[in-house]
Design brief:
The protein is α+β, with helices and mostly antiparallel strands. The protein folds into two domains: 230 residues, Rossmann fold (3-Layer(aba) Sandwich), CATH 3.40.50.300; 95 residues, Beta Barrel (OB fold (Dihydrolipoamide Acetyltransferase, E2P)), CATH 2.40.50. The strands form four sheets. Strands 6-7-8-3-9-10 form a six-stranded mixed β-sheet, with helices on both faces. Strands 13-17-14-15-16 form a five-stranded antiparallel β-sheet, with no helix packed on it. A four-stranded antiparallel β-sheet has the order 2-1-4-5, covered by helices on one side. Helix 2 runs parallel beside helix 4. It is elongated. The protein binds adenosine-5'-triphosphate. The site of adenosine-5'-triphosphate (ATP) has 12 residues, from strand 2 and helix 1.
């Protein structure tokens, strides 16, 4: 990166007694980037976020914001705002007062506070709820207010710790799109912690996949999904079939460990002619998982290996026990480390 990154982490570590929560993170997040930290529970994502915010002191390493070392600075000395999973709205204040609070702390006058809060509430479509208290709102509405409150102070960096975790699927998907739009319009750097791979794929410019306090892989959603480097990443992001050394020999006729996404495995009528370097195998459908838009099939191959394939639903769904032929293009088998 030529320009100064919004956030730079160098050799960042954090131990809690005998527990190493963060085990050496080096990372640059560009100005205006939507960056996701994705990983299973306990992989260290939240601890990294808290060290960026200043709520936690690193055991070793440095945190830089816009080129300045803030490792030893207090949270309020850093130009970052955090939105927590539980929203942390003041229950005794109205929605408007909650949003205006940060502006009042920064010494903004009454008229300016009102204008900025109105605009922030409009940006999350909550202006009609300005006079209610947080308890009179749904979870999704509280979420929006928490965002408005964070956005109104125009931070350079917004840190979000699973802010959509408490929402139902429908609302979460809607908020994912809205958050992305808000971020693009405001030009703020967003750093987002989630254990939901779909959420990370939907919203981010780049994803860091965390595993045991380290980054297993970092890249665009497409790169992380299409070209996972390790079995851990292939398994954590999306569904995949991992073929170990012996399975690769049997199924692909290649040596090494490979990963194949279910949608890349084509189910074809037995004996169908095809391109020369495609691999064909026959098998029996062992399980059918109907998912609405697609159906997932677990297929036991004659070679003794099991693979997962999926098809869009456009007509009839195949049945358990059906004999099928699978076809794999060589480029769809991704080598793993
Ligand atoms: P989750 O998705 O469940 O929030 P996470 O990836 O954010 O998980 P962290 O909260 O960063 O994980 O925790 C990483 C590790 O550090 C865990 O093993 C956790 O138990 C430990 N840990 C976190 N905070 C503390 C603390 N204050 N004292 C002791 N151990 C802690």
């Amino acid at each position: 990166m030529d320009t100064v990154p919004a956030i730079r982490l160098a050799g960042l570590r954090k131990s809690f007694g005998p527990v190493t929560a963060v085990d050496g993170i080096d990372l640059e997040i560009a100005d205006g980037e939507f960056f996701a930290m994705l990983g299973p529970s306990g992989s260290g994502k939240t601890t990294v976020l808290r060290m960026i915010a200043g709520f936690e002191q690193p055991t070793a390493g440095a945190v830089e914001l816009a080129g300045a070392d803030v490792t030893r600075s207090a949270p309020f000395q850093r130009d970052v705002t955090t939105v927590f999973q539980d929203y942390a709205l003041f229950p005794h204040l109205t929605v408007r007062q909650n949003v205006e609070y940060g502006l009042a702390v920064r010494g903004k006058g009454r008229t300016e506070r009102r204008e900025l809060a109105t605009a922030a509430l409009a940006s999350v479509r909550m202006e009609a709820f300005a006079d209610r208290r947080p308890t009179q709102l749904s979870g999704g509405q509280r979420q929006r207010v928490a965002l408005a409150r964070a956005l109104v102070v125009k931070p350079r960096v917004l840190l979000l710790d699973e802010p959509l975790g408490a929402l139902d699927l429908k609302l979460r998907q809607q908020m994912q799109v809205e958050l992305k739009q808000l971020q693009r319009d405001a030009g703020i750097t967003f750093v987002f912690v989630t254990h939901d791979q779909e959420e990370a794929l939907t919203m981010s410019d780049r994803i860091a996949v965390f595993d045991h306090g380290r980054i297993a892989q970092i890249g665009t959603p497409t790169a992380v999904y299409e070209q996972p480097q390790t079995e851990f990443v292939a398994g954590f992001v999306g569904t995949s079939t991992v073929l170990d050394r012996s399975a690769s020999e049997g199924v692909l006729g290649r040596s090494g460990t490979f990963m194949i996404r279910p949608e890349r495995i084509r189910l074809t009528p037995a004996g169908e002619a095809s391109a020369r370097d495609e691999r064909h195998r026959t098998g029996t459908i062992a399980e059918v998982v109907y998912l609405g838009a697609t159906t997932k099939y677990l297929i036991d191959l004659s070679s003794g290996h099991r693979i997962t394939a999926s098809e869009p639903n456009a007509g009839s769904v195949r049945q358990r026990g059906d004999r099928v032929q699978i076809t794999i293009r060589p480029e769809d088998a991704v080598p793993l480390e």
